[in-house]
Write a structure and sequence with these properties.
With 641 residues, the chain is α/β, with parallel strands linked by helices. The chain is built from 17 helices and 36 strands. The two termini are 36 Å apart. The chain binds alpha-D-glucopyranose (GLC). Alpha-D-glucopyranose (GLC) binds next to loops.
């Protein structure tokens, strides 16, 4: 049962696809409070046993209780515990315990969820604006509430089959020969691979929809050459358009009035990778179509997958911000002995990126009216991705194109997937990846994953192996790392056998994973579930955050600590424990309900099969194309009946 409450005159987000009448019943579950400025907040008492799920891409645990979260899409690569905002805003929570209900605050501006941070027994939700739609979803169980919500927001994007293959990325493979070398190493080491990513350096001066002729000559032939080796190239597209006379995207966008404006009506300027850029106004349907059609050139070259980036939008600086900082520095009294002033000096210089003042100075045009960016900030990446997806629908309606984005909002899940942005090569970020998957699924994002091995800082062999051993179950399975970090490809750490074994297991699982994924998309189900969703009566299971259910069949128990020889697992009921090495079963036994310590070496992958379920494995292959051959049809069926 979903009830809709309208506040003010919100700008439609199109997050919800079903048309619900505005409820005339009094607000249930939440108490409403209006302050003297007319700002509304909602609160509820949390009972001791209440767990709060949701918020999609957010820091901390599956249970969000005990912290405060600000849904405001943020380009911040340090995903530490205290962070209140990451790249996506997914304003949906489920309270489950004494009573159960879901809340979705549909609003493009910032929304704060204080989930027992100020007071552990209190939930307080505060939209930063007066115009929004509030949805309350009633249901007896968390999984039922999520299902109702997922139905309301529409079916999740379905990625192509090949996008379940293993994908290798780096910022950057600078030349076509760099890419060839990556492919050669993977193929020679017989480590399966389906895609290589092209980060910003494939472009000419970071200009969207250009390809550097010097570094990637005869691009179309190169795309074909890679395809013949079973490799898809996946180029990045950034939100900002370089300001450069004669550059067609810039010239056209400017002439047609498709860029975001300043208050005075001139085109807004910020610095990103290409230097001075304009941001397309994706909230205008015509601008969206215009930008989307620019993907055609790369599609014509044979490209079948894209990642949309820097679409919070990320701003490294603005001229206004620099002018303010310079004025501050010039006026600085170096003879003062106030150490706080010196700290402020540093933050003035380092705080030039993504300033709230700059977001407040940017304007969109919605139905002919100027709308301050802050009001719709969280929709920007969503509408960029929608621009691409709508163009694909128009240009190549019969083809599934891989598409995912860094910034997102609920609604975008119908157009593409997401990756969780610039994480670090930290063990804690492997655990964060594990915990985030069910939360993302609750909000409709099924095709998603983290940068395996971690984006920033240097990865180690053991971290990459453990991360891959979890990543083989995530729909997007991509190893990506930042400029300046140590090489992170699977052949960069000496002996490749363990990597080959783990990634080969992924390929043996792909037919099973892909069909479970498509089924979950079509039925508005989750692929990754907290144990609590299927074992709500088991109080131990309800509080487990480092084991996940995969669909209805499996339980995953990844190892996420360095130097661990295994881990303790909890079985809410008897299950078949299967241990894989070199993509083969090396151990299988039925374990009774309760706690167990399982030994898991670095090159092994543990899986638990639930009673009455089975796991299908096909024959190994080195690319998804090879999976469709007859030999791969030989299936191994592991079951626990
Ligand atoms: C951003 C992206 C990252 C990419 C880099 C360079 O930081 O999140 O994935 O590698 O930009 O394009």
């Amino acid at each position: 049962m979903l009830k809709k409450y309208l506040y003010g005159q919100p700008i439609p987000t199109e997050a919800i696809v079903e048309d619900y009448p505005v409820s005339d019943e009094p607000l249930c579950c939440l108490a409403e409070k209006i302050d003297e400025d007319g700002h509304i907040s909602f609160s509820a008492v949390l009972a001791e046993e209440d767990i709060v799920y949701g918020l999609g891409e957010a820091s901390r645990g599956i249970n969000k209780r005990g912290h405060i979260y600000e849904c405001f899409n943020s380009d911040d690569p340090y995903h530490t515990e205290e962070k209140r905002s990451l790249y996506g805003s997914h304003n949906f929570i489920v309270v489950s315990g004494k009573t159960s209900y879901g809340v979705f605050v549909d609003c493009g501006a910032k929304v704060t969820f204080d989930i027992g941070y100020s007071d552990y027994d209190r939930l307080v939700i505060t939209p930063s604006v007066k115009d929004f739609v509030l949805y309350i979803i009633e249901g007896d169980r968390a999984d039922d509430i999520v299902r109702q919500f997922r139905r309301a927001i529409g079916q999740s994007y379905i990625a192509p089959f090949w996008a379940f293959g293993f994908q290798q990325s780096r910022w950057s493979y600078f030349t076509a020969d760099d890419v060839r070398e990556v492919v050669r190493q993977y193929r020679e080491n017989h480590i399966p691979l389906d895609a290589v990513y092209l980060d910003i350096d494939y472009m000419e001066a970071y200009k969207d929809f250009t390809v550097s002729e010097e570094r990637f000559p005869h691009f179309r032939e190169f795309v074909q050459e890679m395809k013949e080796q079973g490799i898809h190239l996946v180029p990045i597209i950034d939100a900002g358009v370089k300001i450069e006379e004669g550059y067609a995207v810039y010239e056209e966008g400017k002439a047609k009035g498709y860029f975001c404006k300043r208050k005075d009506g001139t085109d807004f300027v910020a610095g990103v990778w290409p230097g001075r850029t304009h941001f397309p106004d994706f909230l205008q349907p015509e601008a969206r179509r215009w930008f989307g059609l620019w993907y055609k050139g790369l599609l014509d070259d044979g490209i079948e997958g894209f990642w949309n980036d820097m679409n919070e939008p990320a701003m490294f600086y603005t001229e206004e911000g620099i002018a303010e900082a310079v004025a501050y520095l010039k006026a600085f009294d170096f003879s003062c002995n106030d150490s706080n002033k010196f700290f402020e000096l540093g933050s003035r210089a380092s705080g030039l990126a993504n300033r709230r003042e700059d977001y407040a100075a940017m304007y969109h045009t919605v139905n002919g009216q100027p709308v301050c960016h802050e009001q719709v900030h969280n929709l920007y990446g969503y509408y960029m991705t929608r621009a691409a997806a709508e163009a694909f629908q128009e240009l190549v309606p019969d083809k599934k194109i891989l598409l995912f984005s860094r910034s997102s909002y609920i609604g975008m899940h119908r157009y593409g997937g997401l990756w969780t942005g610039d994480n670090q090569s930290w063990w804690s970020h492997l655990l964060l990846n594990i915990k985030m998957m069910p939360s993302l699924n609750m909000c409709g994002f099924l095709y998603c994953g983290a940068d395996l091995g971690g984006f920033g800082t240097n990865c180690t062999r053991d971290l990459l192996l453990r991360w891959l051993a979890f990543g083989i179950f995530t729909p997007l399975m991509r190893n990506h790392s930042a400029f300046g970090t140590r090489p992170q490809e699977c052949y960069a750490f000496g002996d490749t056998e363990a990597f080959r074994g783990i990634i080969s297991l992924r390929y043996r699982l792909i037919p099973y994973l892909y069909s479970e994924y498509v089924r979950a998309c079509e039925n508005n189900e989750m692929l990754f579930k907290p144990l609590a969703f299927d074992y709500p009566e088991d109080d131990i299971a309800r509080h487990i955050e480092d084991q996940l259910l995969l669909s209805d069949n499996l339980m995953l128990t990844p190892v996420y600590e360095q130097n661990a020889i295994g881990r303790t697992v909890y079985l809410p009921e008897p299950m078949r424990f299967v241990l894989f090495k070199n993509a083969e079963v090396i151990h299988s036994e039925i374990l009774p309900q309760g706690h167990h310590f399982i030994h898991v070496a670095l090159d092994e992958v543990p899986v638990f099969i639930r009673p009455g379920h089975s796991l299908m494995l096909c024959s190994p292959a080195e690319s998804t194309a090879a999976l469709s051959s007859a030999s791969s049809l030989a299936v191994t069926n592991l079951s626990f009946s």
